[in-house]
Amino acid sequence: SVARVLLCLHEKNTEFELVPVNLFACHHKLPSFLSMNPFGQVPALQDDELTLFESRAITAYIAEKHRDKGTDLTRHENSKEAAIVKLWSEVEAHHFNPAIFAVIHQLIVVPLQGEYPDAAIVEKNLEKLEKVLDVYEERLGKTKYLAGDTYTLADLHHVPYTYYFMKTSHAGLINDRPNVQAWWEDLCSRPAFLKVSPGLTVAPTTN
Amino acid sequence: MGAIQAARLPLFISPSIKHHSFLHSSSSNSNFKVRSNKSSSSSSIIMATIKVHGVPMSTATMRVLAALYEKDLQFELIPVDMRAGAHKQEPYLSLNPFGQIPALEDGDLSLFESRAITQYIAEEYSEKGEKLLCPGCKKVKATTNVWLQVEGQQFDPNASKLAFERVFKGMFGMTTDPAAVQELEGKLQKVLDIYEARLSKSDFLACDCFTLADLHHLPAIHYLMGTDSKALFDSRPKVSEWVKKITARPAWAKVIDLQKQ
After folding, report:
1. Does position B208 have pLDDT exceeding 80, yes or no?
2. pLDDT band with cut points at 50, 70 and 90 for residue B7
3. Residue B82 CB neighbours (<10 A)
4. Which of A5, A71, A110, B4 is the most buried if burial means most Cβ atoms within 10 Å?
5. Are A30 and A179 in contact (CB under 8 A)?
6. Percent helix, strand and coil across chain B, each to the nearest 5
């Protein structure tokens, strides 16, 4: 998800150039792009001779490179806190993302491809997502953010797909859970989010 | 981490004397002590501060055990009675609210998610045992993170479902779905083509030395190499060579030994 990387760059107040990749023209499958990401997915990042892909590896790199400025996204000064940030980042990657992505894919992407959403897939994944959000509801009753009392990558990684999800008819999954809702509203109020959200259009034509 | 850990494993792990003899007879696995779940246990000479809650058959538990053995760390393996659903109840849920194994305790730090645990072990104990994160420049660290994510996002979703179809379903009295196997193998082949190209440029995935990025693949590969899906790995020379190297590591042999006991 490109937005994950953009959010991270803004949290760090760091200069960057956004090079659009025309997905509808399949530019992400051209050799010029595949040499940056052999999996043919956006985003990819180039920093001098270093080329990276996988948005969560890119955010980890940016957060580490700029660890002494902007928001502390990794709690790097305390190894135990840093481990907890990694833990909730893994939770996002393996529990939250697969479920929410499947729902968004069916409800938003599939219609763009001229097909009908598969209701069974949506239902199955909404159920999974509810169970994850129940754990979040309890967790966020104890800490302000997922990994502790400060905003970290563990929260940031959730933002782009939650944003899209809130545009579907299932926003209640978030809004019906007071701690999760408060957390989401906090994430949406961050200056970095306000800079990135205008670019989060439903039809991913560029970047 | 989903189905394989969440499913019950009917074959073993009950709080029994088995674990007392396990404790006394293990010589090759001197890194750890196993505590019986029974309160009458006499095995209270627990000195390790690291505790792993899990079972040796579980892919995610194996991932953590591999890292601990690579680092030559003392630890205690506390079996979780999955058959009785212990992983879905307290006190286990306080260790992992998702009700999955493994969980790790190190002093007052409590963690779950195997890949977060291995990263913690690799960093916290970076000076001990084998290097799991290439020392040196930040660019190599960044590249290691890329391939850690590739395993988690591209390889594992297909490999672990394929292992579930080929291996674990049979154990639970369920039938393998051939259509699912075909679909999953198709997806995995595309990933392995990319690995083949990568391993033509680099001895291991992240760089020329073994890192966590390679280690994370071991459990799924171990199971798949015991099935017809091994052809996917054998048919790609660089991938095949890499599989042989990483599965031959002494630390990995110790993890497999645990399964046999």
Report:
1. yes
2. very low
3. 23
4. A5
5. no
6. 55, 10, 40
Place of tokens 């909404």: A126
CA distance A84 to chain B (A): 7
Q: Do A80 and B109 count as a contact with CB atoms less than 8 A apart? A: yes
H-helix or E-strand containing A159? helix A159-165
Residue pLDDT, tens place only, A62-96:
999 999 999 999 999 999 999 999 999 999 999 99
The CA distance from B112 to A86, in Å, is 10
Alpha carbons A9 and A14: distance in angstroms, whole number: 6
3-state SS of B52-74? EEECCCCHHHHHHHHHHHHCCCC
* Tokens describing residue A154: 């563990």
Spatial distance between the Cα atoms of A116 and A106, rounded to a whole number of angstroms: 8
pLDDT of residue A118 exceeding 90, the answer is yes
Within chain B, what is the greatest distance between any pair of CA atoms?
56
Pairwise CA distance, residues B64 & B51, whole Å: 11
pLDDT at A111: 93
What is the model's pLDDT at position B34? 56
- B233 with B225: CB under 8 angstroms? yes
In whole angstroms, give the CA distance from residue B205 to residue B188.
16
What is the token pair recorded at B251?
Answer: 């630390």
Provide the token pair at A3.
């937005």
Mean pLDDT over the full length of chain A: 94
Distances (CA, A) of A96 to A162, B28, B125, B191: 10, 39, 29, 23
What is the number of alpha carbons within 13 Å of residue B158 lying toward its C-beta? Answer: 19
Q: Which residues of A touch B (CB under 8 A)?
A: 38-39, 49-50, 52-54, 56-57, 60-61, 64-65, 79-80, 82-84, 86-87, 89-91, 93-95, 98, 132, 135, 138-139
Rounded mean pLDDT, B251-261: 94
Query: If you measure CA to CA, which chain B residue comes closest to A83?
Result: B120
Helix-strand-coil split of chain A, %, nearest 5: 55, 5, 40
